[in-house]
Amino acid sequence: IRCPVKECDEEILHGKYGQHLSSHKEMKDRELYSHINKGGRPRQHLLSLTRRAQKHRLRELKRQVKAFAEKEEGGDIKAVCMTLFLLALRAKNEHRQADELEAIMQGRGSGLHPAVCLAIRVNTFLSCSQYHKMYRTVKAVTGRQIFQPLHALRTAEKALLPGYHPFEWKPPLKNVTTNTEVGIIDGLSGLPLSIDDYPVDTIAKRFRYDAALVSALKDMEEEILEGMKAKNLDDYLSGPFTVVVKESCDGMGDVSEKHGSGPAVPEKAVRFSFTVMNIAIACGNESKRIFEEVKPNSELCCKPLCLMLA
């Protein structure tokens, strides 16, 4: 109810109108404006009613909404009511609640996707235990699982590992096995000659080069497709593509202090890796570039081939 007192014009809830009116001491005839209870119980707030009573009180409005939905929205009453609710929330600046509701309506849920959580963990250089601590804290404080647990991240990570994506070489490559399901192999396999020159003991884990390259390109699928779309090259989805790769090898410093428990390791750790520098597509006589690595020296884009303690 809008207060009829001059220069007040305040909107008051129905039940609190009498109480508000008593604050206007200057009014002599304030009874004129007060609500007259005709006996019976005072009207309760809509949300405190039973479902049946809510239906009863809202039946006229429900009929109007139904008529509107059938006329304008193909009979989708839920969409009309949800949109009304979202507008009411946003009008009161309750944007967080509105965003969460919108996410649920679109089937996204309010939590982050495991792949997004993995990207956050990698980009912020969090160890597994640091991430798990953050995950537990956020879950305890908010009461909601916004970040995904570590096991979900590990499952998402498998898609990035060499040997996860099946592929075949056309034409088949000489001396290269056709088996694509390759995980980690012995780091020294195929290197007997060079090992003799350096009498060092090495522990190594190595990925197969072709499997690692396919995995890297599969990981970049979205960027490749976006690059093709930007240059209107959708007709060339089957290629041929030219992929330029930079190989690198870097020492990972003294790892003796990074071990924690166990004996000190005075030796060095070495990483062989590659970075996809750019990808081009041959259209007719010219070559068009559809991807270029902006930070080619960043740790975040180098794909490990071999990790070795020497």
Automatic annotation (TrEMBL):
Catalytic activity: S-ubiquitinyl-[E2 ubiquitin-conjugating enzyme]-L-cysteine + [acceptor protein]-L-lysine = [E2 ubiquitin-conjugating enzyme]-L-cysteine + N(6)-ubiquitinyl-[acceptor protein]-L-lysine
Alphabetical GO biological process terms: adaptive immune response; B cell differentiation; chromatin organization; T cell differentiation in thymus; V(D)J recombination
Protein origin, superkingdom: Eukaryota
Subcellular location: Nucleus
Cofactor dependence: Mn(2+); Mg(2+)
Domain NBD: 39-106
PANTHER family: V(D)J RECOMBINATION-ACTIVATING PROTEIN 1, VDJ RECOMBINATION ACTIVATING PROTEIN 1 RAG1
Descriptive protein name: V(D)J recombination-activating protein 1
